[in-house]
Amino acid sequence: MASEAAARVTLYGRADCHLCEEARQVIARVCAETGDTWVEVDVDEDPALAARFDEEVPVTFVDGRQHDFWRVDEARLRAALAR
Fold first, then answer.
1. Which residues in the chain show pLDDT less than 50?
2. Would you say 18 and 8 are in contact if contact means Cβ atoms under 8 Å apart?
3. Cα(42)–Cα(50) distance, rounded to whole angstroms?
4. What pTM value is reported for the model?
5. Fold of 9-82
6. Where are the beta strands (DSSP E) in the chain?
């Protein structure tokens, strides 16, 4: 994983979240194949993020823009990273 500022993909999630684990696996696999960087941020460590994303985690950003929430579509992520 990279620093948040350097990463192309940011996953906002939380511990003990099965959807976050699924998203993490998809993102890790796609980024390993494409060579893109990613970072994970635990929303529960920041009250503002917890309030913002509470019911939507996991939330995925690509290049600083919100891409998905709840589930990460592998084909959509690949397409976004190809741009």
1. none
2. no
3. 9
4. 0.90
5. Glutaredoxin (3.40.30)
6. 9-13, 38-42, 59-62, 65-69
